[in-house]
Q: What sequence folds into this?
């Protein structure tokens, strides 16, 4: 409930808010209800990043992948084993790694 309150406060203050919803039987119903309230809703329905498939072409072990990209080893293991789903920030970063692995590694190294 607190998360919903914060999302509404962000929409009022900033004009936008990002929220993560559980799987819905029919997301169009929620979209229609939000639209009726004056809220424009968009969704990120891209398929999840295959973390194991992401690191395998580079020959990186789970430990090496986590170290190279500044990720927690346990989180990577949980994603690969399906025990956890990366949050929105992690998914965004994994997509950057997926498309620009060298640049992501260099940017992280330069950032210290």
A:
């Amino acid at each position: 409930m607190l998360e919903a309150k914060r999302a509404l406060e962000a929409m009022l203050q900033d004009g936008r808010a990002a929220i993560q919803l559980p799987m819905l039987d029919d997301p169009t119903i929620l979209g229609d209800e939000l639209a009726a309230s004056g809220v424009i809703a968009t969704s990120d329905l891209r398929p999840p990043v295959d973390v194991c498939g992401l690191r395998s072409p580079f020959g990186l072990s789970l430990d090496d992948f986590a170290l190279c990209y500044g990720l927690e080893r346990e989180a990577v293991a949980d994603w690969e084993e399906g025990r956890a789903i990366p949050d929105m920030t992690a998914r965004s970063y994994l997509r950057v790694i997926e498309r620009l692995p060298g640049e992501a590694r260099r940017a992280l190294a330069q950032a210290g």
Summary: Residues 2-36 form one domain. The mean pLDDT is 85.
